[in-house]
Amino acid sequence: MAYQYAGESNNWSTSDVKTWLNGTFIASFTDEEKAKMLKVSISDGDNSDSSTIINSSGSDMVFLLSATDANNTAYFADNNARICQIDGEASYWWLRSPGSYNDLAAVDDEGSVHDDGFSVDDDRNDVRPAFWLAY
Fold first, then answer.
1. How far is it, in rounded angstroms, from Cα 71 to Cα 55?
2. pLDDT value for 41
3. Strands ordered across the beta sheet of 104-107
4. Global confidence as pTM
5. Three-state secondary structure readout of 24-88
6. Do 109 and 125 touch, CB atoms closer than 8 A?
7. Residue 47: what are its φ and ψ, rounded to 5°?
8. CA-derived radius of gyration, the chain
9. Greatest CA separation found in the chain?
10. 30-64 pLDDT, tens per residue?
11. How many Cβ atoms sit within 10 Å of the Cβ of residue 112?
């Protein structure tokens, strides 16, 4: 899906993907599952580090990883671990970090993180939702 279908904004707060993740997508979880998800607050800034976004006053339960997160070896050991398979095919997937101009960072089909970005209205990229769980 596109990060933003109309316009050229790469801001998380106004993105179509944020609206979809925290609306239609989150609705597919049970109330019990949603109760275990922490609400987070993500600023539009450089969106580079989700380790600082946990905030009980936040509004998002589901978000995209940042470029910093995708490069974090605690989450992904290497490029192979970042490869996203959809129906047996490797695909690109969105990150929430702004790229150059109004583009957005993404991970390619070989697991490499591209900080420079892709056009936000490109609907060929996939979405890999992320969330924090309380335990």
1. 23
2. 81
3. 93-98, 104-107, 113-118
4. 0.88
5. HHHHHCCHHHHHCECCECCCCCCCCCHHHCECCCCCECCECCCHHHHCCCCCCCCHHHHCEEECC
6. no
7. 50, 40
8. 14
9. 41
10. 999 999 998 888 876 666 666 555 555 567 899 99
11. 13
